[in-house]
Amino acid sequence: MHLATFVASTFLFNTAIAWIPSPITAIQKGFSYGSNTPNFSTSFNAANHLQGTTGFTSARLYTTIAINTTSDPSPAIQAALNAPGTTLLLGMWVSPGTTTNLAAYYAERDAMYKAFKQFPALKQIVVGISVGNEDLYRAYSTANPTGKPLGNGATTDALNMAIKDLRKNLTSIGIANIPIGHVDTWQMWTDNGIGGQIIPNLDFIGMNGFPYWEGYMATNSSDFFYGLKSVQNTAKAANNVPVWITETGYPVAGDAINGPGNRTQGIPSPNAAQTYWNLVACPLLKQATTNLWYYTLSDKGSYPTFGLTNATDGTTPFDLSCKNAAAATGPTGPNKRQAYQKKARTYQGGS
Q: C-alpha 280: how far from its chain's center?
């Protein structure tokens, strides 16, 4: 999971066209959904009927396995097939993963095979398959309060093994044209070269970026997100592999996070979430050249809370219309901010 004045420019527009050539003909926009989503059909309908915006018809799943089962397909698949226009970015849980222990991946693979066999139309609505979510971050990153890797991740060798296995086995059942990728934090693609060890085997890179977890106010998040720290550096590291934004958002409630200079800057609130939506989400939506799965539609019971909809009545706490958002905003010079410790976060039925 994780207003200053900006000079309007063509930075975002020119950059977006250059660094995200998508193999998918239609640009996707939607949300991420955990396996414990109470009702996928209700959630998909709500996402497609948000106040002030339209077209959020894609669902990114952290896992293809139904909750409380070992390898049954997620009910999200049937719900998506029953909702015309809905697409899926299927996810496969890989952690913990090593070259001698890929049990989690094999269970996901079994569920996926069952799903494609049970629902022949599924391959027509799948825009991609993500082998893992933030596995490299958990396995290798020291950017957390402990200063040590969090564990329960997957190694680069394990991910490469799983990716190659999935590609081979999908081809064997006549499904060879679905992009296969991996989702991780932007640091895993940019800072240490770890992500580079799996990029040659990917059809797309999923980038998770949360300026809040870096201690950035919503008002200066655009500079961080579009600047040299996250999006641009991920694009450079991608080496022409398409980059999809698989998670980003700003919480409406939660703890303040210390930012540069140990100043408390990441302060959640509905106003902060509105600002972030205007500065970061709206330019992406207006440009419409980038696949985006925003975090998130609803996360009842989670803390901090990122949900765009009220958990009790489904209303949105702020304006999603982008009427007051700049046409394009971005940094006008080098981003000199330092990235600060990223706190571990628990996803709703995800990671």
A: 14
Tell me the sheet residues that pair with 257.
Answer: 266
Say which residue, 275 or 19, is predicted with more confidence. 275
Comparing C-alpha atoms, which of 64, 6, 72 is closest to residue 33?
A: 64
Cis amide bond preceding 296, omega within 30: yes
pLDDT at 202 over 70: yes
- Beta carbons of 55 and 318 less than 8 angstroms apart: no
Q: Where residue 188 falls among pLDDT bands split at 50, 70, 90? A: very high
Position 101 pLDDT exceeds 50:
yes
Length of the chain: 351
Q: Is the pLDDT of residue 333 over 50?
A: no
Catalytic residue among 27, 247, 290, 296: 247
Q: 87 forms bridges with which residues in the sheet?
A: 58
Residue in 108, 134, 135, 299 annotated catalytic:
134
DSSP string, 1-54: ---------SHHHHHHHHH---SSSSPPEEEEE-TT-S-HHHHHHHHTT-TT--
Q: Partners of 208 in the beta sheet?
A: 185, 247
Which domains can be identified in the chain, with CATH numbers? Answer: 11-294 (3.20.20.80)
Amino acid code (one letter) for 1: M
Cβ 200 vs Cβ 156: under 8 Å: no
Cα 49 to Cα 275: distance, rounded to the nearest angstrom: 21
Q: What is the pLDDT of residue 3?
A: 25
Give the residue from 113, 115, 120, 122 showing the smallest Cα distance to 86. 122
Binning pLDDT at 50, 70 and 90, where does residue 262 land? confident
Pair of tokens at residue 58? 């894609």
Instruction: Identify the three-state secondary structure at position 237.
Output: helix
Q: Is 108 a catalytic residue?
A: no
**Three-class DSSP category at 334:** coil
Q: Is 214 a catalytic residue?
A: no
| Token pair of 212 as six digits | 């809040």
Partners of residue 61 on adjacent β-strands: 33
Residue 227 confidence (pLDDT): 63
Q: Does the CA dihedral 166-209-48-282 come out positive or negative?
A: negative
